[in-house]
Amino acid sequence: DVKVTQSSRYLVKRTGEKVFLECVQDMDHENMFWYRQDPGLGLRLIYFSYDVKMKEKGDIPEGYSVSREKKERFSLILESASTNQTSMYLCASSRRGTVNSPLHFGNGTRLTVT
Amino acid sequence: KQEVTQIPAALSVPEGENLVLNCSFTDSAIYNLQWFRQDPGKGLTSLLLIQSSQREQTSGRLNASLDKSSGRSTLYIAASQPGDSATYLCAAGDTGANNLFFGTGTRLTVIP
Predict the structure, then answer these.
(1) What is the average pLDDT value for chain B, to the nearest integer?
(2) Kindly report the CA angle at B73 between B67 and B76, in degrees rounded to 5?
(3) What whole-number distance in Å separates Cα of residue B109 and Cα of residue B11?
């Protein structure tokens, strides 16, 4: 089974802090994604990566950056956390280049910014 | 931009009932359509994926259909069980498969 592991289930940070969310997958997937999930808004794509050192902006990249130095690891960085970044963050991975590759999600990190 | 809608937002049914969850999307040029399950406080679990060239997929008591021309997909759950209680989300994959557009989900409660 594919396993996508997010390093923290819960995080509490202060406004202005730099925050790192880590995600690791063990199935050699090329694609990795970061979403945030908010009530009434559903899941929204922040960034995705289709290869090492490659990144593409999603729908809501403002205030975030990402890093993919190794194929299995995709990090989301909040440069200066703000209260409107309080949310559930979900990492996902999939195989590239096939129509039949479902998205596999981690269990999420619930971030609270105070 | 693709918009995905799921109605109703919540549904309660007695155990044993067959039920249908609905998903509609605005742009028929999709790569695939995926259905997920999410338990409270957890990530999403992939249930079924329908390629754009397919009409349906089945897994156990679940059957998902896709009608691209009308912009609709349905998830049929047979003989519902309390363990099926969760939020079900559908997502339409764009033609590059680099993004999925998610609905906001239907929260299903199966009453014993």
Answers:
(1) 93
(2) 120
(3) 6
Confidence band (pLDDT; 50, 70, 90) for A98? low
Q: How far apart are CA B73 and CA A15, in angstroms?
A: 42
Q: Do B109 and B21 contact (CB within 8 A), yes or no?
A: no
How would you class A3 by CB atoms within 10 Å of its CB: exposed for 0-12, middle for 13-18, buried for 19 or more? Answer: exposed
Q: Is the pLDDT of residue A1 over 80?
A: no
Residues from chain B contacting residue A93 (CB–CB below 8 Å): none
Q: Which of B43, B100, B105 sits opposite A107 (nearest CB)?
A: B43
CA distance A4 to A97: 20
pLDDT digits (tens, 9 = 90+) for B87-96: 999 999 887 6
d(CA A104, CA A113): 27
CB proximity B33 to A under 8 Å: no
**DSSP assignment letter at A84:** G
CA angle A95, A26, A32 (to 5 degrees): 45
